[in-house]
Amino acid sequence: MNGIKTLADLKRKQEEVMSRMGQRNRGENPESLVQVKVAMATCGIASGAKEVMEYFMDELDRKEIDAVVTQTGCMGYCFAEPTVEITLPGREAIVFGYVDIRKAGEIIERYIGEGELLDGIIPQNYNTI
Amino acid sequence: MIDLAMHMMDIAQNSLRAGAKQIDIDLTESSRDHTLLFRVSDNGSGMSRETVEKLADPFFTTRTTRKAGLGIPFLKMTCEQADGRLTVSSEEGRGTVVEALYRTDHPDCLPPGDMAGYLVLLLRANPEVRFRFASRIDDAEFVLDSDELKEQGINLLHPQMPDAVRGYIRENLKEIGRKRPPYGFPYRLATQAPQTDNMQQTTERY
Fold it and tell me: Which of these, A32, A22, A12, A122, lies nearest to A78 by C-alpha position?
């Protein structure tokens, strides 16, 4: 594939990457970062949360947005999986439902990027099943 | 759940929710016995005997956000469909061991799926947890230890590194996959081309 077969190869790759870009400064305190939580329980996995989570990680990296992407359990919105909870610094957490890769792109571009509210937000007082 | 990698993520998520700091994932295939043992053990909070007894009931869950819990019932279903069985043992305060046994000569044995992709997600999203993943086929073995990666200075938060680690895992799994006897179903499924060609390939091979 990419010719990496041993730990030594991996280490070499890491050194190569580090020398090329230099360590990016990551804010130490998570309050100042964008937090992305992807629901990764049975319901999420079955509806493709993996692809969405990989997309968030890669895309935020590429756009050099300081963010922590983590997985979480089911948030109770199984009908709307994959669901993603986004917390912008200093704002309340917002849960988006039915997030596919296209929607994820929109969220990164418009909500994380511009702070603009989008369709697909699950209201907090919404009754769970 | 259409492959083992999905189950792996699902069960590991249970471990994470139980506050585990170390999660061991083992896939052990034996070509002589035609078995595949999928095992996840953690040092999380564990469960009481009563909870363990109710685990396979899809309408049992400790959550208050919803009324069903399908992770373990699905795992039980997929391994029993392949003539295997599910064992869960747990001790409160010590941790939990989930073992699903599959028969690799059974047509319903699950394919491995994207192990590398899910592993990298787990490692990347939970840097404070130690993951040890081992895949064995007879005497061939591939072990990935997140502590060892850290010792070598490999940082998954660095752009491009997830791809490299995914490639590393895939390459090694492919390598030990060569030891799989060609008559087992996981072998056939794992060596198949991307999903779109599945139907065509299956008809050719059987």
Answer: A122
Fold of B4-205: Heat Shock Protein 90 (3.30.565)
Q: What pLDDT score does B156 carry?
A: 87
Which among A42, A54, A62 has the least Cβ separation from residue B10? A42
Degrees (nearest 5) of the Cα angle B196, B202, B206?
175
Q: Structural domain boundaries of chain B?
A: 4-205
Name the residue of chain A whose CA is nearest to B7's CA.
A42
pLDDT of residue B55 exceeding 50: yes
| Residue A127 domain flag | no
Owning domain of residue A76: 29-122
* Number of domains within chain A: 1
From the list B39, B18, B14, the residue with the least C-alpha distance to B93 is B18
Residue of B nearest to A64 (CA): B159
Is the residue at A114 inside a domain? yes
Q: What percent of chain B has pLDDT above 90?
A: 61
Regions of chain A short of the pLDDT cut 50: 1
Judge whether A118 lies within some domain: yes
Which residues on chain A are in Cβ contact (under 8 Å) with B163? Answer: 2
- Residue of A114, A97, A101 whose CA lies nearest to A34: A114
Q: What is the ipTM of this complex?
A: 0.84
